[in-house]
Amino acid sequence: MLEERETAARVRVEGLREEVVRLAEVLEAAEIELERRVIAREELVEALAASAAESTAVTETETEQETVPSPAPVPGSTVPPWREGLPVTVLTSDYQQILGVVEERAPAGQGTLKAREIAVQLGLQATPAKVEGVRSKARRLAERGWLVQETSGSFSAGRRPVAAPDAGPSV
């Protein structure tokens, strides 16, 4: 009778262990989904802010003949396309830090860094949300010519001119 009870308890414990493993997997999937939604919201807020800034700039340009661009970056501002003579200081500190890490650790032609490695070098936890935030900023820098994005998804130092709307030829 004791053996039967022990066997029943053993079966119950094993069933509970399987349930814990299943719930841990469900929790992990839910955490990943939450982190993705946080990143998506942050990207949307940034895009809306950039769009609002652009429409404000167009309105101001129409009312004023001459505008002088501010040399200091504003948090939430867009990343301008790289061109010869454009200083790194036009970027916000987040973008400057990413650029600095990549240039320090992977000089042109000597290696590449993945977004996770960049995040760790910046002193961030290597959680999916933090890594995705760094990845999206590094991609933005690459799209604008400040970095080079390799086909493997890693980033290396290097500058290249990119065509910007209404900017004329980018030589």
Describe the protein.
The chain has 171 residues and is mostly helical. It folds into 2 domains: 68 residues; 100 residues, Orthogonal Bundle (Arc Repressor Mutant, subunit A). 57% of the residues lie in helices and 4% in strands. It has 4 helices and 2 strands; from the N terminus they run H-H-H-H-E-E. The protein has a two-stranded antiparallel ribbon. It starts with a helix and ends in a 14-residue tail after the last strand.
Write the layout of secondary structure elements.
Layout: H1 2-63, H2 93-105, H3 115-121, H4 128-143, E1 147-149, E2 155-157
Antiparallel strand pairs: 1-2
Helix pairs in contact: 1-4, 2-4, 3-4
The average pLDDT value, as a whole number, equals: 81
The helix/strand order is HHHHEE
Query: What is the strand arrangement across the widest sheet?
Result: 1-2
What is the count of DSSP helices, taking H or I runs of 4+ residues? 4
Q: Going by CATH, what is the homologous superfamily of the largest domain?
A: Winged helix-like DNA-binding domain superfamily/Winged helix DNA-binding domain
Q: Which percent range describes the beta-strand content?
A: under 5%
The radius of gyration computed from the alpha-carbon positions, rounded to a whole number of angstroms, is 24 Å
Shape: elongated
> What's the N-to-C terminus distance?
87 Å
